[in-house]
Structures are given as structure tokens and as C-alpha cells.
Design a protein that fits this description.
By secondary structure, the protein is of the alpha/beta class. It has 10 helices and 11 strands. The strands form 3 sheets. The protein has a 6-stranded parallel beta sheet, sandwiched between helices. Strands 3-2-4 form a 3-stranded parallel beta sheet, with helices on both faces. Helix 6 crosses helix 7. Bound molecules: nicotinamide-adenine-dinucleotide.
């Protein structure tokens, strides 16, 4: 029997535990605050930001939303980030990507106070992750790590293949898998768009994590018997539905499910975990900044101030 992992259920459980942490913070007079900054009129970005704001509200994090006109000079965005860096009510800052072309994306990542960088993309936080003492793990790979833990998948000594080498999913995912400790210790291969014979690599893997952004790239013939398959991909494909499209992953679910011991669906797998881990990082940021020790889910030990 293949175990189809329910990301909504795992996400809800973790959000419940985070709500307990938020109560502990409240007892010390602290309300975690997450500032979202949107410099775009792309409907998808607007939807992502409003989903994040709603999720904050539901667990008791104060959501503070700022909009910058997409045609405004880049400095306006940097001034907004500076103000949020200095605002003591703000513990986490998230600038929704992508920003317009005239804004230097790397400067945006560098401009956020690393102690408030709940996406974990500031070079200091990337460096800490690579060095093995992360402050904020990037949300999607961290969500995958907790999903694996929830399914009792021990990655130690396993062969893991990560398909995709982006800064937000593939690279940090591989970095987490090679770290010493729980959720790590995997022998990890990163595949990408120039990889020769992808199927030969994925077929040999005990754990396949697909993050290529290519619909149903990986089918059952590319999965080894009993492998664990985590599908990060979210792709819109034309379909005869009300919206005219449907969402599919990077894995062809039905054929891969025939081979896998554990698999995540799309939607309802990794997606719900990503926002959950943003809430997690915001709670962690508040706990660290305010010097309150709380027990974060999956952290294994309380956050020491
Ligand atoms: P990206 O486009 O930045 O990176 C894709 C990576 O896949 C690249 O490194 C590329 O080398 C690799 N790749 C592309 N085609 C390939 C192929 N044929 N074979 C092997 N490798 C290939 O994308 P991203 O931001 O890393 O996102 C990847 C996917 O995950 C997208 O579908 C995205 O929508 C989804 N995503 C989902 C969540 C979530 O919460 N579920 C979060 C972030 C991203």
C-alpha cells in the first residue's frame, strides 16, 4: 500500500503546535509580527500574499501588509524595507517575489535584516544553512523535511535525488539532506536541466524530491520500487475545467504511485507546508529577538534566546 502523504493534515498539526508557541510568547507580552511587501500587480503574487496574511491571522501572528507601486523607483521598496527593519513590532519581513525588472533582486535579499529574514534567502542565512547551523531554513525545503519526518521516513544513509537546483528549493533542499542530524545524513545528488539521463539517476534513489517546474516530468518508469517521492512542482496545464486549467506536479502521480511507498499529491502535499513553515520562521524570529524560549515543532530542542 502506498502512503499518500496529506500535507494539509501535517500542516494543520504543525500550525496547532505553533499556536501553542504563540501563547507562550503572548504570556511574555510578545505578539509575533510578519510584514509582507508587495511590489507587483500580478494576480498570482497578490493571491500568495493574501494567503500568507490569512494564515498569520489564523494562528495569532500580526500581519502587516505594505504595497509599493510596481512603477515606483526601486528606492521606495528599499526605504520600506529599512523602516520595517527598524520597526520593533515586525519580527519577520517577506518581500514577495518576483519584483519588477528595475529592482535589483539580490539587493532586496541583502537589504532585509538577517534576523527578520523569514524566507531564509539573505546571504548570511544561506551561509549559515550551508555551514550546518541554520537560523531560518527556507520554507519549502523545511516543509519537505517535516513531511518526511511525519511519514517516519529516515533519510540517514539513504540515496536522495533532488531534481532542480534553484536557490529557493533545489539547493537548500539538498543542503538540508546532507546536514548531520535528523532529517539529514542522506547521500544526495542534485539533478538539473543539463543532467544526462535523469531517469537513470532517479530510478536508483530511495528518496526523490522533484522541484523542476516541468509538468509530470517524472513518471513511474523513473521511480524505483518502494521509493519515497516528494513532488514540489506546481504547474498549470490547460484542462477542461471551469478555470480552463488544472494544477499538476512534476511527477506523474498515478504511474509513480504504483512504484512508490510514500508519495505526495499536488495539490495538497508540499504546498500547505510552505506557508506553515513561514509561520514557523516568524514565530522563531520573534522568540529569538525577544529572548523567549519556545519549543518549536520538529526542532528537537527549544529555541535558546
Ligand atoms: P526554478 O524554475 O527556479 O528551478 C527549476 C529547476 O529545475 C532548475 O534548477 C532547472 O535546472 C531544473 N530543471 C528544469 N527542467 C529540468 C529537467 N527537464 N530535468 C532536470 N531538471 C530540470 O523553479 P523553483 O522555484 O525551484 O520551483 C520548482 C517548482 O516547484 C515549480 O513548479 C514551482 O511552482 C514549485 N514550487 C512549489 C512550492 C510549493 O510550496 N509547493 C514552492 C516553491 C516552488
Amino acid at each position: 500500500m502506498t502512503h499518500v502523504l496529506d500535507g494539509n493534515a501535517v500542516g494543520d498539526r504543525i500550525r496547532g503546535e505553533l499556536a501553542d508557541c504563540i501563547d507562550e510568547l503572548a504570556a511574555e507580552g510578545v505578539t509575533p509580527g510578519l510584514a509582507t511587501v508587495l511590489m507587483s500587480d500580478d494576480p498570482a503574487s497578490e493571491t500568495y500574499v493574501s494567503m500568507k496574511a490569512r494564515a498569520c491571522e489564523e494562528v495569532g501572528i500580526e500581519g502587516i501588509h505594505h504595497e509599493v507601486d510596481p512603477d515606483a523607483p526601486a528606492e521606495e521598496l528599499f526605504e520600506t524595507v529599512d523602516r520595517l527593519n527598524d520597526d520593533p513590532a515586525v519580527h519577520g519581513i517577506l518581500v514577495q517575489m518576483p519584483v519588477p525588472d528595475h529592482v535589483d533582486k539580490r539587493r532586496v535579499l541583502r537589504s532585509i535584516d538577517p534576523g527578520k529574514d523569514v524566507d531564509g534567502f539573505h546571504p548570511e542565512n544561506v551561509g549559515r544553512l550551508v555551514a550546518g547551523h541554520p537560523r531560518f531554513k527556507p520554507c519549502t525545503p523545511h516543509g519537505v523535511q517535516l513531511l518526511l519526518e511525519a511519514a517516519d521516513v529516515d533519510t540517514e544513509g539513504k540515496d536522495a535525488v533532488v531534481v532542480g537546483r534553484s536557490d529557493i528549493v533545489g539547493k537548500p533542499m539538498a543542503n538540508l539532506l546532507i546536514q548531520k542530524g535528523p532529517g539529514g545524513n542522506a547521500t544526495t545528488t542534485i539533478c538539473h536541466s543539463r543532467t544526462d539521463d535523469l531517469g537513470a539517476k532517479t530510478r536508483e534513489a530511495d528518496v526523490v524530491i522533484a522541484a523542476a517546474g516541468y509538468p509530470e516530468l517524472i513518471d513511474g518508469s523513473m521511480i524505483g520500487e518502494g521509493a519515497v517521492v516528494i513532488d514540489v512542482g506546481v504547474n498549470r496545464v490547460e484542462a477542461d475545467t471551469e478555470k480552463g486549467y488544472e494544477l499538476v506536479g512534476d511527477v506523474e502521480f498515478e504511474s509513480a504511485k504504483e512504484k512508490a511507498s510514500v508519495i505526495t499529491p499536488v495539490p495538497g502535499g508540499v504546498g500547505p507546508m510552505t506557508i506553515t513553515m513561514l509561520l514557523y520562521n516568524t514565530v522563531k524570529a520573534a522568540a529569538l529577538r525577544e529572548g523567549v524560549a519556545v519549543s518549536l515543532p520538529g526542532e528537537g530542542r527549544p529555541v535558546e534566546p
